[in-house]
Design brief:
This protein is α/β, with parallel strands linked by helices and about 110 residues long. The protein is about 35% helix and about 30% strand. Helix 2 packs across helix 4 (about 100-109).
Length: about 110
């Protein structure tokens, strides 16, 4: 992980992590995915910038965690899903500028 405020989300810990409450942004990614690597710095920055405002951020490797990916219908990556108290409330599929993800964070904080 590039940032110490980003949690490693897996099929095994998804419920415990994401359903623990509050706003959670989960980046569904894979090592071989170029666009995933492109958005990684933006995800890291948002995790650091909004941690004190209550945003939790995690990354889920789709190759290693197929059950959670299938559960939320993730077919294309990068996919950034937003959860509030464990409920899926929004998503952004595909790579975009930091502002695109930040606007979603601000909308839901």
């Amino acid at each position: 992980m590039a940032s110490d405020v980003i949690n490693d989300i897996t099929d095994q810990n998804f419920t415990e992590e994401v359903e623990s409450g509050g706003l959670y942004m989960v980046d569904f990614w894979a090592e071989w995915c170029g666009p995933c690597r492109m958005i990684a710095p933006a995800v890291d920055e948002l995790a650091n910038e909004y941690q004190e405002k209550g945003l939790k951020v995690g990354k889920l490797n789709v190759d290693h965690n197929p059950a959670t990916s299938a559960r939320f219908g993730v077919r294309s990556i990068p996919a950034v899903l937003f959860f509030r108290d464990g409920e899926l409330i929004d998503q952004v599929v595909g790579a975009g500028p930091k502002a695109m993800y930040e606007n979603k964070v601000l909308e839901h904080l």
